[in-house]
Request: fold
Amino acid sequence: MTATDRSIELVNAAAQAAADRLAHDIIAYDVSDVLSITDAFLLASAPNDRQVKSIVDEIEERLQKELGAKPVRREGDRDARWILLDYVDIVVHVQHSEERVFYALERLWKDCPEISLPEDAVKTRGKAEEHAGTTAADADADADRFADGELN
Reply:
């Protein structure tokens, strides 16, 4: 069994919405052969809670407006560290970057076929590492400037 055309349509629209809100490392898996409850998982992440919520809101709004799809369940809003949108045909996971690394959902689903996504979504791969590297480099530079007396 493979993901339905409707599931692929939902995944692509959700991936584009996430990319438009600057999500990191967007990837989708066809889990229809191993799960009977859904066809696909879409994973995305962001470096802070506010952005996680913004990405989820955009996905929800876009799928409602463009495809008439509403989630049957939305979980994780309170902390906005990992928000799940369940559309029955697909499940969207938007995680804070730290949760993404810790839970490593990609490892669980790596044997499932990857679903092709819009180019904007594919371009987000590696952005979390790039962001983490930039942040670490910025922190090191700030520490050096502080030690040199440039920052007080």
User: Anything to note?
Assistant: The first strand starts at residue 24 and ends at 30. Helices lie at 5-20, 49-67, 97-103, 105-109, 119-122, 127-147. The beta strands are 24-30, 40-46, 73-75, 82-86, 90-96.
